[in-house]
Amino acid sequence: MNPPAIFTVLDRREEIPHTVTLRIQPAQGGTVTPFAPGQFNMLYGFGSGEVPISFSGATAEQGYYSHTLRAVGKSTEALARLQPGDQLGVRGPFGRGWPMDQLAGRHVLIIAGGLGLAPLQPLIEAIVAKPADYLGAQLFYGGRRPEELLYLARMAAWRDALNVELTVDMASRDWSGHVGVVTGPLASAKFPASNTVAVVCGPEIMMRFAVRTLQQRGLDDASIYLSMERNMHCALGHCGRCQWGPNFVCKDGPVFRYSDIAPWFHVREL
Amino acid sequence: MKTVADYVREHALFDGMDPAQVEFIAGCGRLRRFHEGEYLTRENDAADHFYLVLEGRVVIETHRINQPPAPLLTLCANDIVGWSWLIPPYRYQFDSRALTAVRTVELNGQCIRGKCESDNCLGYALLKRLTSVMVDRIHGARMQLLDVYGAATPGADPLP
Ligand SMILES: Cc1cc2nc3c(=O)[nH]c(=O)nc-3n(C[C@H](O)[C@H](O)[C@H](O)COP(=O)(O)OP(=O)(O)OC[C@H]3O[C@@H](n4cnc5c(N)ncnc54)[C@H](O)[C@@H]3O)c2cc1C
């Protein structure tokens, strides 16, 4: 296993409670290895542990990486506490990302739940940068409450290139988005099913709902892509920690085509 | 110009339904617009109608003492508003309020109940469709309760 490269925190932005975006650059300066939307780095907070965290910035960003992470346990809490100037270890980029070549010329449905918007942001920024390359694009983003939705400020710029539908489980009366499940607006959205690709990232239960709605709306299983964020360790397909059916999430994924994983997707305890 | 039957036929609820049955149902309907802020239904009022939403957004909400009403679900084009016309005592269970200008087909519940009683095939066909929407809503409500997004604990301190 390669030792991690040392990076320095350039800045830290608190997005929503317990969730921060870190911009990190190589401690020695210089360039960073390019990444593809949907790939991830292994981030190592010294003395805590190493965890997979997706790239959440635009691929066009030069000289640094952006990662949005939620503090859920020992390693992510340590990373989320880092301040500008602090150092961390980085290995990556790893994994197979979103099928950007499959999206060109087609209508793109982006379905995200909670923190699942982070791995989709590089894909969204790619569409926003060149909207003419796509037939159209719609974002369906769901969260618990309006104040727990990511990137609301940035979304204003996205709306020129894509239709944005926000849905929360609960809200006060002044909320102008939807209340309900993220699949609600998806069920009645207009799109050309035969020329549409869907990319989905969020809690697995939400992804199961989304797949069912997409199937009901006429999408075939080969046009649905999901990011499976299972726990992993080495990120190289050696240790077997993230084995899922015949796949290793770290190297065969995290993005999978639904038609390739349908047999495992509904198996409990896998 | 489009007729009420055309709008009913194009609505997702009736997708693929026998055209004669759709025509029959459309006989109980009329086009109705609501302004932003106007109520389609009011809790406990007689549930005489239900609505096929053609355009715009509607919120289903319930009132609370000394607090603003709680929004429960928003609905948009191709959704339907209201079941209470189908189930005794035929009173609306919730308020539904237009969030934008809303275009609907307003269907008269009593008229449809009468038609379904006299034509059980129509009744069964309609009930199957309504049941599927109701099941979707129940599944949705369950998911809303689950907190699937693993949200930060409400009220917990943000990171230092
Ligand atoms: C490919 C991939 C990309 C990811 N991208 C991001 C990202 O961009 N931002 C981010 O915040 N997180 C992301 N994660 C999840 C992140 O890696 C985990 O939250 C982290 O490993 C938890 O480690 P910990 O030591 O902080 O918590 P632990 O002590 O290991 O776990 C704390 C709690 O979190 C749960 N948990 C751990 N890992 C996961 C997981 N993968 N999914 C759901 N629950 C989990 C555990 O069951 C436990 O309840 C990604 C995971 C993968 C596999």
Short note summarizing the structure:
The complex is a heterodimer of chains A (270) and B (160). With 270 residues, chain A is of the alpha/beta class.
Provide a descriptive summary of the structure in words.
The complex is a heterodimer of chains A (270) and B (160). By secondary structure, chain A is α/β, with parallel strands linked by helices. Chain A has helices at 74-81, 100-103, 121-129, 152-158, 183-187, 204-216, 249-252, 258-265, and strands at residues 5-16, 19-26, 40-44, 50-54, 65-70, 87-94, 107-113, 136-143, 163-168, 178-179, 196-201, 224-227, 243-244, 247-248, 255-257. Chain A folds into 2 domains: 5-94, Beta Barrel (Elongation Factor Tu (Ef-tu), domain 3), CATH 2.40.30.10; 100-269, Nucleotide-binding domain of ferredoxin-NADP reductase (FNR) module (Rossmann fold, 3-Layer(aba) Sandwich). Chain A is 21% helix and 31% strand. In chain A, β8, α4 (152-158) and β9 form a beta-alpha-beta unit. Chain A starts with a strand and ends in a 5-residue tail after the last helix. The mean pLDDT of chain A is 90. Chain B starts with a helix and ends in a 14-residue tail after the last helix. In chain B, the strands form 2 sheets. A 4-stranded antiparallel beta sheet of chain B has the order 1-8-3-6. Chain B is built from 4 helices and 8 strands; from the N terminus they run ααββββββββαα. With 160 residues, chain B is α+β, with helices and mostly antiparallel strands. Chain B has a single domain (4-149), classed as Jelly Rolls (Sandwich), CATH 2.60.120.10. Chains A and B meet through β10, α5 and α6 of A and β5 and α4 of B. The structure holds flavin-adenine dinucleotide. Flavin-adenine dinucleotide (FAD) binds next to β4, β5 and α1 of chain A.
